[in-house]
Specification:
The structure holds 2 protein chains of 2 kinds.
Chain A lengths: L5 H9 L5 H10 L1 H11 L2 H26 L25 H20 L14 H4 E6 L5 E7 L19 E2 L8 E5 L6 E11 L4 H6 L7 E5 L15 E6 L3 H4 L3 E4 L2
Parallel strand pairs in A: 2-3, 4-8
Antiparallel strand pairs in A: 1-2, 4-5, 5-6, 6-7, 7-8
Chain B lengths: L15 H15 L10 H29 L8 H11 L1 H29 L5 H21 L1 H15 L10 E6 L5 H8 L17 E7 L2 E7 L13 H12 L3 E7 L8 H10 L9 E6 L11 H12 L4 E3 L8 H22 L2 H6 L21 H10 L8 H8 L15 H4 L6 E2 L2 E2 L8 H18 L11 H28 L17 H11 L53 H19 L16 H4 L12
Parallel strand pairs in B: 1-3, 1-4, 4-5, 5-6
Antiparallel strand pairs in B: 2-3, 7-8
Classes of the chains: A alpha+beta, B alpha/beta.
């Protein structure tokens, strides 16, 4: 025992009080009263934090109780017919499957017409120009309003230089330019921070695509050489598409799902 | 010099969850909490930026406090650095602190990025989301540090409980096999209550005790036992002992058990000694043979004796002791202390610092006047008397009585009273027949009182208590009178000023008041007091110059370096103070008029008046123009 553990040393030499164990037991038994007092007294943010903690504790308690209550019973085994098994009088019929085939072909054709692709977020809210651009007043006494400031996150390529300030119509501030995105692989469930190569399509308007504005649902191309993917032919895959899943201007980062 | 190797002042390292809770709740309490979406966007932005910055600052402060409080292994004494390496693993320690440092920088970067983003937030919702994201990011960074924080908290707790060993002071270090009696020895010479048990490795860490020798404080360090194997095989406990041996400049006491009760034979103990001998370089060494109450050195077998003899041949002092019977313990301690002291003095003399001290020391020996010897002289008779008396009888003290009688002893203070035996133990009452007994203690008390009173009367008559009051002479009377007058005048002034302060009457500003301090006023006041002011020649004041600068002065008034007349005691008006007359004055006046003109034109009270009386005056905002277009209004 180290030299300065006086309490432990005393306990080792002289032992405990005669009623020590009893007192410990009683103190523990009174703990629920303190808990309930706290739960009633605490208000505001502290109350919310306490309630959250208490809820998770209760969930754990209930789980353990339920686990104790589970009994080993034998359940009736419903003899399920395996799929595809047909009763004897239907054995020679095949019509249903064909119909199915046809209808899926029809669906495919419809999709192609509509231009809806198989992406994680098929429909997104369209962003109006008023949302994406803000009018920048210039000129004497601020009377000219032809310049626009982009209020959403955008991507400008490497080697991007602004047009001369007198002529640039769309101002993309440096604070809102992002180069990297957090891309999740849907099957691996792993997220990587990959550099963006370009903006492929912004669902709201082609003008946004050309400007490089990234909003929710935008398809971007990311550099996946970090993942080390290889094609069948042995070539290294270095670019893949991903779709943005969050509102980057609200979160300060671009989260995307890789389109495999 | 006591270096403060006291690691108790390290700040408590909270768990990662607690850390986040502390910072977030502090942010919530210490920053404004109310914002509405109809506020100006700049105000909303500022509100949220403040929260992000505050959280970052709090994280930064707490983490940098942790980083500065934990000792850097390179900055502390090598003994402590080695000890900490043994106990906590230097690499792990440095890594943990490095992780905290990284977290600190990451949090700073997060805050910078999000504050930059917040500048472009155009709605309350967006700003709020950005602030939430920023705080969330910082919290995630801290969550990842959970392991480091936990480790650092454990290190802190252990570190604060290390015994405070001063590596630079006089130290005795006790080492040897387990169970040889090191802890018993330290228990005997110091007040350290180290556990002593029959099993090996009872002492698992370093223990420190203090003892005195020659009016100096000595540190005694007890180490866990060391077994005889190579350095790589040693466990943490033994490594602590090795660290102490390696870095502390101390006198080493190598304790051996010659009765072999510890489980190791003398040969094994000597072998251990040989293997750790390199650690004893440059340190005074002492081999101590313990447990001599069981078997003495002389009773050993010759082979064992020869091993011990080798020590003596190597000039290493060997001493015997027995901690149970306390025989030889003090000798060992004294010998070790003496050797260490001699060693330290030797080292100090060899160092450079000693010259600085020796230069200032001078031991003066009185020169003998002549060659005759003057020994101490005791008269013959005294010597004879001393021999006659014999040894002094020791008076029996109460303590001796108590020891003798043990349980039957009771303290009786009355037994030495100078009274006849039957009165000694009587209880004395306080009152008797309505009189105080205390008044009659002394049979002559009334006579003594009367004598005292007579003496007192004589004294009063002779004037011992009279004050020396001389008649105040003329000068003193004059002074008294003046003093009274001054006091009266002061009181009047005080009352007048008090009256003057009350009342809401408007007072003329300073510049408008008449000249307060003038020669005429001086004259009248002093004449009131009775001073003769008719003598003008010897006076040091003169009539001041008149105010207007056009009339030439009758007498050249004294002016200072800037040319201003100093004897005029009027306060300069504001538009002339600091402005030289002439061109500067004209320019100042012009500027003043120019500035005032605009304000007058718009009917403004002053520069700060922003009130616009008519926002859209009709003549400007309506009607056609005589000439020109009405494109721009």
């Amino acid at each position: 025992m180290p030299q300065n553990e006086h309490i432990e040393l005393f306990q080792k030499r002289y032992g405990f009080r005669m009623d020590y164990q009893e007192r410990q037991r009683k103190k523990k038994a009174r703990e629920h009263k303190l808990q309930s007092k706290m739960a009633q007294k605490l208000t505001g943010i502290k109350g919310k934090i306490f309630a959250k903690k208490r809820y998770s504790e209760k969930v754990q308690l209930k789980r353990t109780i339920k686990a104790h209550e589970e009994k080993k019973t034998r359940q009736k085994d419903e003899g399920k017919t395996p799929e595809g098994a047909l009763p004897a009088y239907l054995l020679d019929r095949e019509s249903t499957s064909q119909a199915k085939l046809l209808s899926s072909m029809v669906k495919q054709k419809r999709k192609e017409k509509a231009g809806k692709w198989d992406v994680p977020l098929p429909k997104v809210r369209a962003q109006s120009e008023a949302e994406v651009f803000r009018v920048l007043k210039t000129g004497k006494s601020g009377r000219k309003g032809w310049k626009r400031l982009v209020t959403k996150v955008c991507f400008v390529g490497e080697g991007f230089t602004r047009k001369p300030p007198k002529y640039e119509r769309f101002v993309r501030p440096m604070a809102l330019r992002f180069k990297k995105a957090h891309v999740t692989h849907p099957e691996l469930k792993a997220t990587f921070c990959l550099p963006i190569v370009g903006v492929k399509k912004n669902p709201s308007s082609p003008m946004y695509t050309s400007l490089g504005v990234i909003t929710k649902g935008t398809i971007i191309e990311v550099n996946v050489s970090e993942l080390g993917l290889v094609t069948q032919g042995g070539k290294v895959v270095w670019g893949k598409y991903a779709q943005v899943t969050n509102n980057p201007e609200n979160d300060g980062c671009i989260n995307a799902i890789l389109l495999v | 010099m006591t270096s403060q190797y006291n690691f108790k002042k390290i700040v408590i390292v909270p768990t990662s969850k607690d850390f986040i809770d502390i910072v977030l709740s502090k942010t919530q309490r210490k920053t404004p909490t109310v914002v509405h979406k109809q506020y100006k966007i700049s105000r909303i932005r500022q509100f949220y930026m403040r929260k992000v910055k505050f959280a970052q600052q709090t994280f930064h402060d707490k983490l940098s406090q942790i980083l500065t409080d934990f000792p850097k292994l390179d900055d502390i004494h090598p003994f402590y650095a080695d000890l900490m390496n043994v106990l906590y693993d230097k690499d792990h320690y440095k890594l943990a602190l490095g992780q905290i440092n990284i977290a600190l920088h990451l949090i700073d970067n997060v805050s910078k990025d999000y504050v930059r983003l917040l500048k472009y937030g155009d709605s309350l919702y967006r700003c709020k989301q950005l602030k939430k994201a920023a705080l969330g990011r910082m919290a995630t960074i801290m969550k990842r540090q959970a392991q480091s924080l936990q480790y650092l908290e454990q290190v802190r707790q252990h570190l604060s409980r290390l015994p405070s060993i001063d590596p630079n002071t006089r130290t005795l270090l006790i080492c040897g096999f387990p169970n040889v009696g090191k802890s018993s020895f330290i228990n005997k010479i110091t007040r350290a209550d180290v556990e002593v048990q029959p099993y090996a490795f009872t002492t698992k860490s370093l223990f420190v005790g203090h003892t005195d020798h020659r009016y100096l404080r000595w540190q005694v360090v007890d180490t866990p036992g060391i077994l005889d194997h190579s350095l790589e095989d040693r466990n943490t406990i033994e490594m602590q002992a090795i660290a102490a041996l390696a870095h502390l400049r101390a006198a080493i006491l190598y304790v051996m058990d010659i009765s072999e009760q510890c489980g190791q034979s003398i040969e094994q103990q000597v072998a251990l000694f040989e293997s750790i001998k390199p650690l004893f370089a440059n340190k005074p060494l002492l081999v101590v043979l313990n447990k001599t109450d069981i078997i003495r050195l002389e009773e050993l077998r010759p082979e064992q004796k020869s091993l011990i003899q080798r020590f003596i041949d190597d000039d290493i002092p060997v001493m015997e002791m027995s901690t149970i019977s306390e025989e030889g313990v003090m000798n060992v301690k004294n010998e070790a202390c003496e050797r260490l002291l001699a060693h330290r003095i030797e080292v100090k003399i060899k160092s450079k610092k000693v010259e600085g001290v020796l230069n200032r020391l001078h031991v003066a020996m009185p020169k003998p006047r002549d060659g005759s010897d003057r020994p101490a002289f005791v008269p013959q008779k005294v010597i004879e008397k001393r021999l006659q008396k014999g040894p002094k009888e020791k008076k029996k003290t109460e303590r001796d009585l108590e020891v003798e009688l043990e349980d039957d002893y009771s303290l009786d203070l009355k037994k030495n009273y100078d009274l006849p035996a039957d009165f000694k133990y009587d209880v004395i009452p306080e009152f008797w027949e309505g009189k105080n007994i205390a008044d009659y203690i002394d049979p002559d008390i009334m006579a003594k009182l009367e004598e005292l009173e007579r003496e007192e009367e004589l004294r009063i008559e002779s004037g011992v208590y009279d004050k020396d009051e001389e008649e105040p002479d003329e000068e003193e009377k004059e002074i008294h009178r003046l003093a009274d007058k001054i006091r009266e005048k002061k009181a009047i002034i005080a009352i007048e000023s008090r009256i003057g302060r009350s009342g809401g009457k408007p007072i003329i500003p300073r510049a408008g008041r008449k000249r307060e301090r003038s020669v005429s006023r001086l004259r009248t006041e002093f004449e009131e007091l009775g001073v003769d002011m008719s003598d003008k020649k010897g006076a040091h004041f003169a009539r001041t110059t008149s105010r207007s600068a056009s009339r030439p002065a009758i007498k050249k008034a004294r002016a200072d370096s800037t040319g201003r007349v100093r004897s005029s005691s009027r306060v300069t008006p504001r538009d002339e103070s600091g402005v030289r007359p002439g061109e500067m004055k004209a320019k100042a006046k012009k500027m003043g008029r120019k500035a005032q003109g605009k304000m007058n034109q718009f009917g403004k009270a002053g520069e700060a008046d922003r009130h616009i009386a008519v926002k859209m005056p009709q003549h400007l905002y309506s009607g056609k123009r005589g000439i020109g277009k009405t494109d721009r209004r």
